[in-house]
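Q: Sequence in, structure out?
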Amino acid sequence: MPPHATASRWRSLLLWAGPAACIAGIFIHELFAEWVPSRSTALLVIMLAALAFAGVLRRIAGLAWAHGLLVAWLLALLLFAGPLPVLATLACAATAIALGLWLLPGAGIAAACTVGLALGAGVLGWLLPLPIHGRWTYLAVIVVVLALRRRDVGSAIRQAWDGWRGAVAAAPRAAAAAVLVAGLASTGCWVPTVQYDDVGYHLLLPWMLQLDGRHALDPEVHAWALAPWTADVVQALPQVLAGMEARGAVNALWLALTATALWQLCAALGGDARQRWWTVALYASLPLTAVLAMGMQTEMQTTALLAWAAVLALRPPSVRTLWAACALLGALVATKLAAAGFAAILLPWLLWRQRAVLGLRNLAGGLVLIAGLGGSSYAYAAYVAGNPVLPLLNSVFGSPYFATQDFDDPRWHAGAGPDLAWQITFDTGRYLEAFAGGGGFVLVALAGAWLLALVAPRTRALAALALAMTVAPLLATQYLRYVQPALVLVLPALVLAASAAAPRSAHLLLVATCVANLLFQANGHWMLRTGIVKETVMAAGRDAPVWMEYAPERVLAMQVRARRAAEGGHGTVLSLAPSAPMAAEFGAAARTVGWYDPSLQAAAQRADHDASGGAWAELLRSEDVRDVLLRPSELPAVRQAGLLAAGARREAVAGAAEWWRLPPRDAVAAP
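A: Exactly. Output:
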């Protein structure tokens, strides 16, 4: 047998060893016992409905399947995310395109939008303490920017439409499959915001800007108040503009930007049209893609920024390309400390790829962009709290606003051994708040493809970078969500490596992996597993029924805000439910007795020692608490006694939650 034939055979064997191991793992770990058929059925019904709608458009208007499916998913987003948030997000995206085209002319709307968001959010990060954030301020900026750059934006949109049509025509079946799977992932964007970290933390900044017009920069109120905030700034822009939360629309935008980046990244590596679309489908099929679409965690944004930075790195060297990529790295730094680590790993490769234009002046300009766009939260945290990464590494910085210890979650230290990829795939609950298979099957099914990508010249660099970005965080904390951006970044390399090793059959492996991922999509989060998407569809765009089931405090919060607005918004709002500190939507007025609010948590624990409730009554008065959200099942007798002693009365009930009101502090103090 000729040497090249032997090498080809070994490559094929290595590739197919991955799916063989995956099938074995599914049976060894009895994953089908963890599978929820009803959730897969619901996903199938949604898929069939979208296909039926696209079929009607194909018959009536002659639209290609991919076009019809895109229309179906967009209409669904309008229904469930809301027309006003979608329009506000589109306005912000158009403005970002204008800003991006200013730095990188001719970039295309997706690249320009991502770069523009990095520029805009980076500048706004420095302006957060100023009382300038409001609908009319933002609208004025949008109008001015679009008026000045309307021709460039219009031309870019027309080019994007022509490019979209060409991409679909080049591989219509693969395009339809990718759009179909991407739409299934976007069902996470339909769901109202109800996740623990979102209603307890991530909503704080958007609601603070909407209610108060500024960010208070007060770590006394919230431990994460000064943490890297670019992801929440991007969420805040359309929310302030629309006057209502826009998370679903914003996440749909990030989903589209990431899909486009992966398509472009595969093209830059030499992939044909089918391979580009299969890369998109593989990304969309990952359970965590849908999970992240449901919430406000930073990895949704990180994935898009990282993928586009890699795309720009592969483009022909130019000063503007270098600076645009540095802007994206700056946005990564401003998104999360882990994302800053990704930026640090990617930066040397970017500089090497762009070395032809890497003079001292250009390098300095790029580094200034990274620091300027990425440094606002760190600078404010250092100035206000004495710890640039509060509440992290506080054993080093010793900020008085958090315990003098390193923030850590002991749940995510299962250990990082040579079988980590296997364990993450089949024992996912040890590495994520999920169930077996909830991380998808790429790590095992395409393990051989990853090894092949590491040795193939055209994919070697990307595969190695993604591997470094995956391994480095997992060595410190074995938490799957933190490495999701790196696992997405490597997908184009995996698709190309698989196609090179098995040109005639690689698509079967990719299809099977996508199907397996979709079957276990619900295992990525307990809310998906209990049917939150189905409940959202049944609610037909109304948030309250879903809130009532998953976060009843949000139903009460609407009533609290209405009462506070009528009375001038005096006093604070206290969440007394340890398991549901859902007060972030009250902005600067929000307080909790959980670890999010260390000072009040300590005061609450001291007050608990007075069984009469007197200390609690005094604490409530000293904090000027007017409204309290609680769950009776979690309310200790001493705290109930304190509420009654302070004159609190129950105002309303929503499921497991209750709203209590206290008289104004002056009224209590009067004789």
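The radius of gyration is 25 Å.
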